[in-house]
Amino acid sequence: MSIDPTGRQASSLPPELTARELGRWTWRQLTSMRTALVLLLLLALAAIPGSVVPQEDVDALAVSRWQDQHPTLTPVYEKLGLFSVYDSVWFSAIYLLLMVSLVGCIVPRTAVYWRALRARPPAAPRHLTRLPEHATYTTSEPPEEVLTRAAELLKRKRYRVVSTSLDQPGPGEDAVSAEKGYLREAGNLAFHLSVLVVLVGFAVGGLFGYKGGVIVVVGQGFSNTLTQYDDFVPGSLFAGDDLEPFCFDVTDFDVSWLTEGPAAGQARRFVSHLDYREDCRQGHETEQRNYDLKVNHPLTIGSTEVFLIGHGYAPVITVRDGNGDVAYGGPTIFLPTDQTFQSFGVIKAPDAKPAQIGLEGTFYPTFVLPPEGQGLPYSAFGDAVNPLVSMLVYTGDIGLDDGTAQSVYVLDKAKAEPVEKANGQPFRVDLRPGDTVELPDGMGSVTFEGLERWNKIQISRTPGKLVALAGVVLALAGLLGSLFIRPRRLWVRARRGDDGTTYVEVAGLDRASGADPERLREEIAALVGDGPDIEQPATAAHKEQS
Amino acid sequence: MTDASWETLSNQAVAAAGVVYFLALLSHLVEWAGLRRLPADEQVTTGRTAMAGRLGLLLTGIAAMVHVVALVGRGMAADPNRVPWGNMYEFTLSGSFFVTVIYLACYRRFRLAWMGPIVVAFVLSALMVAAIWLHDPVAPLTEALLSPWLVIHVVSAVIATGAFTIGGICSVLYLLKERSKAERGYLARLPEPPALDRVSYRMHAFGFPVWTFAVLITGPIWAHQAWSSYWNWDPKEVWAFITWVVYAAYLHARATVGWKGRNAAYVALVGLATLWFNFIGINYFSSSSQHSYAGVVGDGSTATEVRS
Q1: Most CB atoms within 10 A, among A134, A255, A284, B28?
Q2: β partners of residue A492
């Protein structure tokens, strides 16, 4: 990835190669401008599948849903790593090659730049008028004075100036050379280097960081140990015991709802009130503090950050079995399925007697039952205006007996059977807060005791994030330098003619690609315009060079 | 003024700006129809044709002012007041506004008279698309969008989009001009290919750092605050990254032998395609984007959804 004005090119393959030559040839190919360019375009191309195929790291649920829908494609995609594009072999191969190419480019160029920094501006070419931008004039002023004044002017403009006429005889002795804009290449190198810095920061975060989520019912708490997380994605080098020992309680949760306007139904200003301690280990407890956790306002504890990323309802349900014993009880997390917070949830009471009880259904915060034949019930609003839980009842084996792990949000109905009413319709319990429904056949009863809320809290540690940030800031600074600093050279030559007049040639070379020739012309004109007693100023025909 | 009357004002201003842009387009068409009859190297500074050109520029300036009114009205209509780039409709309004602004700002310096008809036609089309397909009533922002980063992240993305769009127009014209042997007419009167290439480069060179700032600095900072992770491989992020890489390749190609000129222009156009695809197309391909303010259904549920 280098922007080399000379466009270093890969050589073609010679007929006979020793191992050493082959190595050198490969290296030269890899670090050539063209290869870097092709790798860049490949990187862009390779990133595309990750935006179309669901990604394991982004949305594991979407991946499994997609895999269920495409049973034939799934094995092929899995082989190609398409569910995890950004850690796949081929994606990594492209960016690692790009990095190698980049290092192979910046190391030699830094050396070249280092030499160029200390070099004097090159001597004036023999024929200044052959340069695309030049001007000539004659004057009665002696050449020395013309050159001295030009050198002073250029120095004032912060050019690095060499007046060969004054300090050394030889070719170009009658000319002033000046150069400026050395920082462009520095910016260019900084930009390329910063790509490596960003990558290091990104890799550190990916290897040593972690990200976990937990759903906490309001009123309950969380302490930062692995077992408390619902989902936990550690970096590959993350040490599992390295969690900061904080804990918090969600004491309260506020939310307001827009009741009018085009965004009616939207939840606003949700705030989770936390009591937290930075250290909860017995004997080390720090003082308790509180924090209002909001979207965009994470809580930082040490190097870990706590984010509020979602909320929902947890109806408190009690299931009593046939003997009247409580077989299940407590707030049950229902996951929202749409904007109205219509939510889906599951209740499992495997120890109920005489038969296991499983419930599966929907929670409607604002229940609306359309007239007969006009569609299904729905939730009209996200706030709990008219809450109702509507669930189907299952019995038999709900799949908890064999000890395999199960999601708490899915009811395994493979060996369970629906409980039916006398007329053969499925038995549905519809409950408002405070309601109790008796189940048929003496199975027991279900009570909707009340409504709690839950918060989805995301907890993450991202080491190296400031390295990555510093990297991109350096990249931007380098980029600005490499795009907007114009490296350029100017030469002024003055010779006394046989007739006693002084012939002066001024020429310039803009070494930036895509620079506006107008600005160089202005600089040349300034050098010309500065001389007194000018005759026949002539500037080059401004012909565009292709 | 009430919020509702601000919104009405904004809608009327969009319509009015559309009409004025249309008149500007007509003036430019009259101008170029007149120029067609003359040899390409003959400059016209007086008479009806030159008048039509100047009128087109004046009308573009007036349209830009009406365009500002539309944007201000949009921001004032929201409760609380905010920057007018909270959804697709507003993004299109702001983006096309910046296209006009960049064109007008560079008109004199780069002698962009030849770009007038194309820029005006483009902005007019963008306004029509916005008004017909993308229009949404003013709505309060979702929780995740309530952040100072909305101002800085989105405005830089909008400005870069404007600059890349103008750069892309130059690249298309460069490719056409390069093949054209016309002695009269629009193509014949365009600047020489190297000059077009240079304007194109200057636009991209301006847009690229701004895009870098939007996508790789402010975007991740905001993402970190709102979603707990500074880079999520969200489809919008992926495509913003792809756009960034392609434009980096464009800048790189201009310095590579064998890729200068024509191939670099093609790379720039690929960049523009990825940019616009990211703006509109990806919303139809992926429903999982957390940038769902831009969703086709406008559900705006960013950061309230649970993905467990």
Answers
A1: B28
A2: A176, A506
- Tell me what ipTM this predicted complex has: 0.88
- What residue type is A88 in one-letter code? S
Residue carrying the six token digits 């080390």: A284
Contact A291, A299 (CB under 8 A): yes
| Chosen from B171, B233, B302 to mutate, greatest number of chain A CBs within 10 A | B233
The number of beta carbons lying within 10 Å of the beta carbon of residue B292 is 23
Pairs of residues, one from chain A and one from chain B, whose beta carbons lie less than 8 Å apart = 202
Chain A residue nearest residue B286, CA to CA: A52
- Please name the residues between 213 and 252 in chain B that touch chain A, using a CB distance below 8 Å: 213, 216-217, 220-222, 224-235, 238-239, 241-242, 245-246, 248-249, 251-252
Unique residue bearing structure tokens 């001295």: A148
DSSP category for residue B192: P
CB A197 within 8 A of CB A205: no
Closest CA to A9 of A28, A23, A37: A28
Separation in Å, CA of B26 to nearest CA in chain A: 32
What are the angstrom distances between the C-alpha of A440 and each of A154, A321, A533, B71, B113?
Answer: 99, 11, 115, 63, 83
- CB within 8 Å of chain A, chain B residues 126-185: 136-140, 142-144, 146-147
From the list A37, A47, A270, the residue facing B241 with the nearest CB is A47
pLDDT tens digits for range B118-131: 999 999 999 999 99
User: Residue ranges per domain, chain B?
Assistant: 1-138, 139-308
Which pLDDT tens digit goes with each residue over B195-240?
999 999 999 999 999 999 999 999 999 999 888 888 888 888 899 9
Q: What are phi and psi of A173, to 5 degrees?
A: -70, -20
CATH classification number, B1-138, choose in 1.20.1260, 1.10.3480, 1.10.10, 1.20.120: 1.20.120
Please provide the distance, in angstroms rounded to a whole number, between the alpha carbons at the two ends of chain B.
45
pTM greater than the 0.90 cutoff: no
Taking the CA atoms of A288, A292, A295 and A300 in sequence, report the sign of the dihedral they define.
negative
Q: Going by C-beta distance under 8 Å and a sequence separation of 6 or more, which residues neighbour residue A367?
A: A377, A379, A386, A387, A388
Q: Quote the CA–CA distance of A434 and A449 in Å, as a whole number.
A: 5
